[in-house]
Design brief:
The protein has helices spanning about 60-65, 80-100, 110-120, 200-215, 230-240, 255-260, 270-280, 285-295, 310-320, 340-345, 370-380, 395-410, and strands at about 5-10, 20-25, 25-30, 35, 40, 55, 80, 120, 130, 135-140, 150-155, 160, 185-190, 220-225, 250, 280-285, 300, 325-330, 345-350, 355, 360-365, 385-390, 420. By secondary structure, the chain is α/β, with parallel strands linked by helices. It has 2 domains: about 5-195 and about 370-420, Ribonuclease Z/Hydroxyacylglutathione hydrolase-like (Metallo-beta-lactamase, Chain A, 4-Layer Sandwich); about 200-365, Rossmann fold (3-Layer(aba) Sandwich), CATH 3.40.50. A hairpin with a 3-residue loop joins β2 and β3. The chain is globular and about 70 Å long. Bound molecules: zinc ion (ZN) (2 copies). One zinc ion (ZN) binds near residues 60, 62, 63, 165 and 391.
Length: about 425
């Protein structure tokens, strides 16, 4: 059997536009993402080859965002879990819509989205599937968002584990990753938080709730920018658990994502509680409800999580001057995004105008990614022959690479975009 090679096409020394090619005579593509940054959309390097299969680990756009584009040239057999397909479709159509309203280019059409959906086989966790000559795949729950998967490829007598984005610790929504994946020869691992550990989730929830309560006591509004998939729903769940008794509004793409998540209750830890929490929240479906939300102090959970667009900007336009209110950021803020700027300078640009934000800005570490300690434990548990680090900022990856070296003696490989690595 031929040797195996790995080529990063995106997501190398960066978070965003993940896409990797595994070549063993036949070719398997892992991910086809997009990077939505301050300079608009950035895409992975062109594929320029036929692939036997494309595998998507989860629905976040940095992993799935440009899959439909592959269907411009022909059809590609694709594999992902059912929730990933469902949520990806929603996000793909949303990308088209946003591009349409901002006259930006998006590299695929409605027809390509439909082809992508038609040629995707939904695969459950644990099911072994032959996808190419000498190659089978298997998904394991990654504990990151609904339907998120780690992928184990068995290629001849060698195995490759690609973690996608994974989280080991339990959260209110998910049980955490299934780490019993069997033996691993080559490990391709995300390193988003390779340089730090997260506080225990419960602690983070409490800090967040304290800030919500303090805001309400001041007579202000708590604006909670949250990612559509997973984070919006988790925040609603936490607010319900701690019995916050002002109106709680859910605005933006988190609504559609919630409906999709509820179609797959098996992927959730406590679907009944989440359903109850979602029912208690007021779903903002019109501008009149949006106006109502601003009449009396409330909590508003809304996209976008990095404040890049979406309804959150409307709320901040109205409330930025209100010292009693707060902006509670709940996730990773990529460098150059409005959220990152807000966090570091208290300034926010909307439609070309720069606002000084007087509302209190706080960031909470609700991460859906493994911590440095968890990733190290994973390396120790799986004992791979080789480790490849992707999906992390350059400096963070270096910190983590040194840490792995120190603790296990393994010299990790850091793929560069476009450079082929023989495994
Ligand atoms: Zn993700
Ligand atoms: Zn990601």
């Amino acid at each position: 059997m031929r040797s195996i090679s790995f080529t990063g096409l995106g997501g190398c020394n960066e978070v965003g536009r993940s896409s990797f090619l595994v070549d063993f005579g036949e070719k398997v593509l892992l991910e086809r993402g997009i990077k939505l940054g301050p300079n608009g959309s950035e895409y992975p390097m062109p594929l320029e080859t036929h692939v036997a299969a494309a595998i998507i680990s989860h629905a976040h756009l940095d992993h799935s965002g440009t899959l439909p584009h592959l269907f411009a040239e022909g059809n590609v057999l694709s594999y992902m879990t059912a929730p990933t397909l469902d949520i990806s479709r929603i996000l793909w159509f949303d990308s088209l819509q946003i591009a349409g309203s901002e006259s930006e280019n998006v590299p695929f059409s409605k027809e390509m989205i439909e082809s992508a959906a038609r040629f995707t086989l939904p695969v459950s966790y644990g099911r072994k599937l032959d996808i190419a000559k000498n190659c089978s795949m298997r998904f394991f729950d990654a504990g990151h968002i609904s339907g998120s998967a780690m992928v184990r490829l068995q290629i001849g007598d060698k195995s490759v584990l690609y973690t996608g984005d994974f989280k080991v610790e339990e959260t209110r929504l998910y049980k955490g990753a299934d780490m019993d994946v069997g033996d691993v020869d080559y490990l391709v691992m995300e390193a988003t938080y390779g340089d730090r550990n997260h506080p225990p989730r419960k602690e983070c929830e409490k800090l967040f709730i304290d800030e919500v309560k303090a805001t309400i006591d001041r007579g202000g509004w708590a604006i909670v920018p949250a990612f559509a998939v997973g984070r919006s729903q988790e925040i609603i769940d936490v607010l319900c658990e701690y019995k916050i008794d002002v109106p709680i509004y859910l605005d933006g793409m988190g609504q559609k994502a919630a409906l999709s998540m509820m179609k797959y209750p098996d992927n959730l830890k406590n679907p009944r509680f989440l359903q109850k929490a979602l029912k208690k929240a007021i779903w903002v479906k019109s501008n009149s409800v949006r106006a109502k939300a601003l009449k009396q102090p409330s909590v508003i959970v809304t996209t976008a999580g990095m404040v890049q667009g979406g309804p959150v900007l409307n709320y901040l336009k109205k409330l930025h001057n209100d010292e009693a209110s707060s902006v509670l950021l709940t996730g990773y803020q990529v460098e150059g995004t409005k959220g990152r700027g807000l966090m570091e300078t208290n300034k926010l640009e909307i439609d070309g105008k720069v606002y000084s934000v007087k509302a209190k800005v706080e960031k909470f570490d609700f991460s859906a990614h493994a911590s440095q300690q968890e990733m190290l434990q994973a390396v120790k548990k799986w004992q791979p022959e080789k480790v490849l680090l992707v999906h992390g900022d350059k400096e963070v990856i270096q910190v983590f690479r040194n840490k792995i070296m120190e603790e296990t003696g393994i010299d990790s490989i850091v793929p560069e975009a476009g450079k082929k690595i023989d495994l």
